[in-house]
Amino acid sequence: MLGNTVVFKCEVPAFAKDYVTVTSWSRSGTIIVAGGRFSIFPWGELHIRDARVEDKEYQYSCSTRNTLLQTTKSSDFKKLTLAVPVNIKPEIIDSVVEHTISIGEEIELPCAASGHPSPEYQWTKDGSSVTLSERITLRRGNLVVSNAVLDDGGSYQCTAENNFGSNTVSRNLVVRGKGRGNIQMSNCRRTRCQAKHPSLVYEMETKVINNLIPPNRIQFGTDITN
């Protein structure tokens, strides 16, 4: 629909996903560079924001690489059909739900909806509204998290809404990496305590000196996940 986000999907069979990757998208033979109105996702989606009449004039194709056979392949051309806008509540296009990145990386969580008038988007994380900043921004409906930190991990929800209704989807983000910080020691019994940190809960051995439990806060450096 004109003015909405268009989503093309480069379909890779489930049995081949471990060794076939999407390498690029092109339109009428020209490689599409992510940025501006275009987003390209590792799992093979192409998003074109604010669809325009001229977008119909191009032919779209994705390219894949088979790492086992060391071969490349291009898909058949796809044409874009844009419907005349009619009043309708948003419908969010299916996309990947589970996402994992490392500390310092960037992730774009997808949320593209059709509907007229063009929907407005609102994101929440663990039940609270997401505050936008220089590091956390919106690309139309997609939420972009740059220079990720452990606290960015969690359960996200995107709501697309216009005058005729709303629709909501969930996206889960795991942030992995090395970190340092304080952990809270509790439930100490002889040489074992439970160590708690906002990003993890685990048990660890503690060294008893003169039958004394160590202080209830210690420093740690370990692989942690939120």
From TrEMBL:
Give its localization. Membrane
Subcellular location, principal: membrane
What would you give as a GO molecular function for this chain, any one?
A: axon guidance receptor activity
Q: Does the keyword Hydrolase apply?
A: no
**Per its UniProt record, what Gene3D superfamilies does this chain match?**
Immunoglobulins
SMART domains in alphabetical order: IG, IGc2
Query: In this protein, which residues make up the domain named Ig-like?
Result: 1-81, 90-174
* InterPro entries named among the record's database cross-references: Cell_Adh-Cytoskel_Orgn (IPR050958), Ig-like_dom (IPR007110), Ig-like_dom_sf (IPR036179), Ig-like_fold (IPR013783), Ig_I-set (IPR013098), Ig_sub (IPR003599), Ig_sub2 (IPR003598)
GO terms for cellular component: axon; neuronal cell body; plasma membrane
Cross-referenced SUPFAM superfamilies: Immunoglobulin
Coiled coil regions in record: none
The entry's keywords: Disulfide bond, Glycoprotein, Immunoglobulin domain, Membrane, Repeat, Signal
Q: Please provide the Gene Ontology terms (biological process) for this protein.
A: homophilic cell adhesion via plasma membrane adhesion molecules; synapse organization
**What Pfam families does the record point to?**
I-set (PF07679)
UniProt-recorded name of the protein = Putative Down syndrome cell adhesion molecule-like
Q: Which organism is it from?
A: Stichopus japonicus
